[in-house]
Design brief:
Its cofactor is [4Fe-4S] cluster. This protein has 321 residues and is α/β, with parallel strands linked by helices. The chain contains 15 helices and twelve strands. The structure holds 1,3-dihydroxyacetonephosphate and iron/sulfur cluster.
C-alpha cells in the first residue's frame, strides 16, 4: 500500500514536471486508469486514445496500453514525444500479421479494398486503404459495401467473421486471433447464466462465434461499457478483458460484473481474462519511462511508414468524427 502510494505520487510529480499526459486503455490495471483520470489524462478505447493524444497540448504523451496504441499516437502526433511504460507490450493480432505475408496476400487480390484493424503494426497500416477499430468496423464495412467494394480483412478472423455475418460483405479474412478473447467458452457462460439468471451477457467480437451467439450485446469496449450503463439488469457477465470492470463499476456502482469463464466448462471456473501485455503497464514501469524521457521506451515510427499509414488512419478519424 505505502509503496503503491509512493509510486503514484512519483508519477503525478513526473507528469507535471515533464508536461506529460497519461492516456490509458480500459484493459490496464485499475490503478493506472485511476491515475490517468486524476491527473487530467484519459481512459478510453484505442480509437479515442488516439484522438485524445492528437488533440492534447502536452509535449509528451505517455501511452499505457500495447505497442500499436503508442505507434498510432506517434503517427498522429509526430511533433510530440510518445513514451510507453514498456515497448514489449505486444498484441497477438499484431504479432499474427507480419507485413510481408500480409502484403503478399493483398497483392494476390488487387481488386479488393484492404481494411485492417488498428491492432497492427505501422507497416501493415501503411499497406491498408482503411484502418478500423471494433467501435467503427461495421459502419465502415457497410460504407464500403455501398460503393460495391470487395474487402480484404485483417488480422482478427473472429471479428472479421462477425462483421461478414452482420453485413453480408464480400470479405477475405486473414487468420489471426486475440489470445485473450479466443479463450472464452459459450458453455461456461451458459452455466454461469444458471447462477445469475437475470444477468445480461456482454461480448467483445474478438471472441469465437459460439460465444458471440450467447451474447445479449456484442460490441467494442466502449460499446460494452455503454450497454452496461444503459441496460436495466443488475448483473452482467462480461466476455472481455476484466480491466474494463473499473470503468463499468465506476459508471454503475450498484451493478455487479462477473467475468465470463474461459478455459473451464463449469460455472465455478474462475477465468483469467486479462491480456498479459496490458498487464505489463505497471506503476514501476510508468515511473521509469517518465524519469528517463528521451532514453527509455520512446516510440518511434519510420517516417515513410508514418506518412503512408496516416492516410487510412485519417479516413477512420474523419469517418468517425
Ligand atoms: P478497442 O479498440 O475496443 O479499444 O479494443 C482494443 C483491443 O485490444 C481489444 O482487445
Ligand atoms: Fe491484443 Fe487481445 Fe491484448 Fe487486445 S486483449 S491487446 S487484442 S492480445
Amino acid at each position: 500500500e505505502d509503496k503503491e502510494q509512493a509510486l503514484k505520487q512519483k508519477v503525478r510529480e513526473l507528469l507535471e514536471q515533464k508536461n506529460a499526459v497519461l492516456v490509458a486503455h480500459y484493459y490496464t490495471d485499475p490503478v493506472v486508469q485511476a491515475l490517468a483520470e486524476e491527473t487530467g489524462g484519459f481512459v478510453a478505447d484505442s480509437l479515442e486514445m488516439a484522438r485524445f493524444g492528437r488533440d492534447h497540448s502536452a509535449d509528451t504523451l505517455v501511452v499505457a496500453g500495447v505497442r500499436f496504441m503508442g505507434e498510432t499516437s506517434k503517427i498522429l502526433s509526430p511533433e510530440k514525444r510518445v513514451l510507453m511504460p514498456t515497448l514489449e507490450a505486444e498484441c497477438s493480432l499484431d504479432l499474427g500479421c507480419p507485413v510481408d505475408e500480409f502484403s503478399a496476400f493483398c497483392d494476390q487480390h488487387p481488386d479488393r479494398e484492404v481494411v485492417v484493424y488498428a491492432n497492427t503494426s505501422a507497416a501493415v497500416k501503411a499497406r491498408a486503404d482503411w484502418v478500423v477499430t471494433s467501435s467503427c468496423a461495421v459502419d465502415i464495412v457497410e460504407h464500403l459495401m455501398d460503393q460495391d467494394k470487395k474487402i480484404i480483412w485483417g488480422p482478427d478472423k473472429y471479428l472479421g467473421s462477425y462483421i461478414q455475418k452482420n453485413t453480408g460483405a464480400d470479405m477475405l479474412l486473414w487468420d489471426s486471433s486475440c489470445i485473450v478473447h479466443e479463450e472464452f467458452k459459450a458453455k461456461g457462460i451458459e452455466d454461469l447464466k444458471q447462477v445469475y439468471p437475470d444477468a445480461a451477457v456482454l461480448v467483445h467480437p474478438e471472441s469465437p462465434d459460439s460465444v458471440v451467439q450467447v451474447a445479449d450485446v456484442v460490441g467494442s469496449t466502449s460499446q460494452l461499457l455503454k450497454a452496461s450503463q444503459d441496460m436495466p439488469n443488475s448483473t452482467f457477465i462480461v466476455a472481455t478483458d476484466r480491466g474494463i470492470f473499473y470503468k463499468m463499476q465506476q459508471a454503475s456502482p450498484d451493478k455487479s460484473f462477473v467475468e465470463a469463464p474461459t478455459a473451464g466448462e463449469s460455472a465455478t471456473c474462475k477465468s483469467c481474462a486479462h491480456c498479459p501485455w496490458m498487464a505489463m503497464n505497471s506503476l514501476e514501469a510508468l515511473v521509469q519511462c517518465l524519469e528517463k524521457p528521451g532514453e527509455l521506451n520512446v516510440v518511434e515510427v519510420d517516417d515513410a511508414l508514418r506518412v503512408k499509414s496516416l492516410i487510412p488512419l485519417h479516413r477512420m478519424l474523419d469517418f468517425t468524427a
